[in-house]
Amino acid sequence: MAYETVLFDVSERICTITLNRPERLNAWTRQMHLDLKDAMHRAGSDPDVRAIILTGAGRGFCAGADMGGLQAIGSGASADRSTKAQDGLPGGSTLPEFRMNYSYFPAIPKFIIAAINGPAAGLGMVIPLYADLRFAAESAVFTTAFAQRGLIAEHGVSWLLPRLVGLPTALDLLCSARKFRAPEALAMGLVNRVIPDDRLLAEARAYATLLANTVSPRSVAVMKRQLWEAQFQTLAEATVQANHEMELSFQTSDFKEGVAHYLEKRAARFTGK
């Protein structure tokens, strides 16, 4: 299946999804929203995919909402601000918080790595925050941008950003809308690694390969769900859930394989079952 605004590629159990409007720095449109959501769910439901990389074509990751769309809204056109929960995927979180229009990445039962290859502004900065890891090119520049457009902290970023960087830093980034570069993003905890531009996708793919070849995809899906859902749980609730999930794990083929490949000193052959 071909998409209008994203590229979709699966190779060696890794799915690479690329925002593909390079002539507009991959500025966000309604069609891109639909294409990305379909591509993510397609990768999430494919048993041959073990990890997902999200990146941008050309010299930018995503410059935020397309200005033509914002101009139309300012002229009276309606904006899509749906709060209706979307259908989830087997193995992913069923919490309604992770089934909203833009917050659905945590409900995808595959590990998602955002490879931020250039400018990431507004919604283009928010989207990778929902990924499980963020790798940034050295040249990447970030800005929340909302306050410079007369807008507010959209798409759940007021909940997510303070959990990543702390409340004072979130207030700074949102209210000033200042630009900041990849090294500062790393220092504040917004990204996990800063990588030379020409090595970004190779490093992201190396990490995805580690996930694809050496760990149980079932374990990854369950732990991803546990960690995201724990943001809404007490310690007691998280512990009860963990005890239940451990009992289920003992019954799986991946548990048996995890013990066997260690004892037999060979590469693992996990099936996700």
UniProtKB/TrEMBL annotation:
<dbReference type="Pfam" id="PF00378">
    <property type="entry name" value="ECH_1"/>
</dbReference>
<dbReference type="InterPro" id="IPR029045">
    <property type="entry name" value="ClpP/crotonase-like_dom_sf"/>
</dbReference>
<keyword id="KW-0456">Lyase</keyword>
<dbReference type="InterPro" id="IPR051053">
    <property type="entry name" value="ECH/Chromodomain_protein"/>
</dbReference>
<comment type="similarity">
    <text>Belongs to the enoyl-CoA hydratase/isomerase family.</text>
</comment>
<protein>
    <submittedName>
        <fullName>Enoyl-CoA hydratase</fullName>
        <ecNumber>4.2.1.17</ecNumber>
    </submittedName>
</protein>
<dbReference type="InterPro" id="IPR001753">
    <property type="entry name" value="Enoyl-CoA_hydra/iso"/>
</dbReference>
<dbReference type="GO" id="GO:0004300">
    <property type="term" value="F:enoyl-CoA hydratase activity"/>
</dbReference>
